Amino acid sequence: MAREATVGTKILWTSLAWGIGLLIFFPIFWTILTSFKSEAEAVSSPALWDFDWTLANYTTVTERSPYFLHFTNSVVISLGSTLLAILIGVPAAWAMAFSPTRKTRGLLLWMLSTKMLPPVGVLVPLYLLFRDTGLLDTRTGLVLVLTLVNLPIVVWMLFTYFREIPGEILEAARMDGANLKSEILHVLTPMALPGIASTMLLNVILAWNEAFWTLNLTAAKAAPLTAFIASYSSPEGLFYAKLSAASTMAIAPVLILGWFSQKQLVRGLTFGAVK
Amino acid sequence: MATDHSRATARLMVSPAVLLLLAWMIVPLAMTLYFSLLRYNLLSPGTESFTGLDNYAYFLTDPAFFEALGNTLLLVGGVLLITITGGVLLALLLDQPIWGQGIVRILVIAPFFVMPTVSALVWKNFFMDPVNGLFGHAAKALGVAPFEFFSQAPLFSIILIVAWQWLPFATLILLTAIQSLDSEQLEASEMDGASAFSRFRHIILPHLARAITVVILIQTIFLLSIFAEILVTTGGGPGYASTNLTYLVYAQSLLQFDVGGGSAGGIVAVVLANIVAIFLMRMVGKNLDL
């Protein structure tokens, strides 16, 4: 910034920004803190540090409930659907970025429009199809659905990244007699990898947190963490500390991934309209 | 330029994605449309019969539909109002020269990465619970009766939770837009003696207009389909007080097993979402220089 700020105003803005930032973050902080309290202390007093720190909730949650099954489900579903979407999306985005035709623009917009189909519009038939084909409450079923749900975003994001790769490089490689295989292997892959990695990062986050299809199409067996946590909405007895521990473990991986993905988030979710 | 051969290759590369999305869109949607014309209840299988537009007539005249439609509009409108206003102010604040800007940004963005079921249950139990929640404790300390969020203001409580989840998104997009603003223009206007407010009104806000539109459209798409937050907090109640259109269709089809009625509701939801979608497509389409 070229504008100069006096130290006084800088202190003012800094404290205001930190105050609001901490306030917004507080519910997450509070959840993490509560996970180290005993059940009795979790409900009785809003203590910030003056309590007996314990890891008991983490052992209870991981030993008394099939937590690792649900965690594994989340990992399999989010990674599986991401890889599958990338596998289908990369060739499509590639072709659209480097050999655009008159139809490309319409095709891209049409793909985007499928994302706008509200999920309840297809809930009933999908539920019945899943029931009849035995896909209900299976990881495979959810991987398939989440792949399709996120495929438009994947294609769009990849497209915006691929478009930034200069086409002249491709033509130069072709003139040098590179065939399609070596063109892809030696010229394109190194230049495309950062974009693919960013797309995967955002997609894993979206799939990890997806809470419409995961809640409606799973039960005990294939439920990922979103659905497992939802079971705490009808609890028995004291559950605050256990809910906190389960929640902390459920959000920690994505919270960490998310902090690395701020730029991708803007790009991926605005379809390149804001950069 | 492109040869016939490379064109064919390109078509081959695009087709899996296109065919899959086409199937994903058309097959279930056609089935929903078909079911919506049937009298079809999962509890009495084998008795399906064609009933024409009866399901639509029933769904569209059901008082629950109007309540759910109103709730949907309030939910979307309320969250948009909070997140856009808060997002603009926060983005302006974060654009100031401050110490530790990167860390503050991380703190502000964090709620977006919390899964919906966690954030709803955290707010419901740790904050809004009248007995054990922090707001309840605070009320007790002040000697006033605690506010019963989910029985006295169920929809408002859900709006607060969802706004907390989406404020980071609005802030991040608007901050990105503000940072692309040409600072020389601002400096020139400052030297011309323009007040901070008129700088905001005449330079920053017009520059943000596009980003604000994008935020509104994208959030609307997601907010129309809010589901998990309602499921784990109020279950749509009391009565239909916090039921939105998405939740109403879910309840109709998977709780009351009325496939025909639920499908008709689903089609209504699709039509409404399409109205929003048309505007978003225009916005994005304009930006797509091909």
Brief overview, please?
Chain A is mainly alpha-helical and 275 residues long.
Summarize this structure as a short list of keywords or feature phrases.
heterodimer, A: 275 residues, mainly alpha, MetI-like fold, globular, B: 290 residues, two-stranded antiparallel ribbon
Q: Supply the CATH class of chain B.
A: Mainly Alpha
State the order of secondary-structure elements of chain A, H for helix, E for strand: HHHHHHHHHHHHH
Radius of gyration from the alpha-carbon trace of chain A, in angstroms: 23 Å
Tell how many strands the DSSP assignment of chain A holds.
Answer: 0
What is the beta-strand fraction of chain A?
A: under 5%
Question: Low-confidence runs of chain A (pLDDT<50, min 5 residues)?
Answer: none
Q: Count of helices of chain B?
A: 13
Oligomer: heterodimer
Largest sheet report of chain A: none
Distance between the termini of chain A: 19 Å
Architecture overview:
- The complex is a heterodimer of chains A (275) and B (290).
- Chain A is built from 13 helices and no strands.
- Chain A has helices at residues 7-34, 39-44, 56-64, 67-98, 104-115, 123-133, 139-162, 167-175, 180-209, 213-217, 225-230, 240-259, 262-269.
- Chain B is mostly helical.
- Chain B has a single domain (62-287), classed as MetI-like fold.
- Chain B is 74% helix and 1% strand.
- Chain B has 13 helices and 2 strands.
- Chain B is globular, with a radius of gyration of 24 Å.
- The interface between A and B is large, with 98 and 110 residues.
Note the topology.
The complex is a heterodimer of chains A (275) and B (290).
Chain A: H1 7-34, H2 39-44, H3 56-64, H4 67-98, H5 104-115, H6 123-133, H7 139-162, H8 167-175, H9 180-209, H10 213-217, H11 225-230, H12 240-259, H13 262-269
Chain B: H1 4-35, E1 38-39, E2 49-50, H2 54-61, H3 63-95, H4 101-109, H5 116-127, H6 134-142, H7 149-152, H8 154-179, H9 183-191, H10 196-223, H11 228-233, H12 245-255, H13 259-287
